[in-house]
Write a structure and sequence with these properties.
The protein has about 100 residues and is α+β, with helices and mostly antiparallel strands. Helices cover about 45% and strands about 30% of the residues. The protein has helices at about 15-30, 75-100, and strands at about 1-10, 35-45, 50-60, 65-70. A hairpin with a 5-residue loop joins β3 (about 50-60) and β4 (about 65-70).
């Protein structure tokens, strides 16, 4: 799976990229039909403690999957987005099985 990382108005972070890549690798092991991931990190200047946003688009057969999370750190936002995508992928995989039978 190809992964593209975008840091919107942020310094590029190798450690954040590695963290996200490890999470995505786990998804790829479970779901071998993922073609590409686009990961966007951005910081919202907000009044509350959150404002660290991670959104991920996955290219898979059929419509793209998307998840976005706004947390108190990029790591927790990434983990939440990946968890959401895991649920979506699980659902998609069961639909794919249904169609192939």
């Amino acid at each position: 799976m190809e992964a593209i990382y975008q840091f919107v108005k942020l310094e590029k972070s190798e450690s954040l990229q590695e963290f996200a890549q490890k999470k995505l690798n786990k998804l790829e092991v479970k779901y071998d039909f993922i073609v590409k991931a686009e990961v966007y990190f951005k910081k919202e200047e907000a009044q509350d403690t959150n404002g660290y946003i991670c959104n991920i688009k996955l290219s898979v057969p059929g419509p793209q999957l998307f998840a976005e999370s706004n947390k108190d750190s990029f790591e927790s936002a990434t983990a939440e987005s990946v968890k959401d995508l895991d649920r979506q992928l699980s659902k998609k995989k069961s639909q794919m099985k249904t169609h192939s039978n």
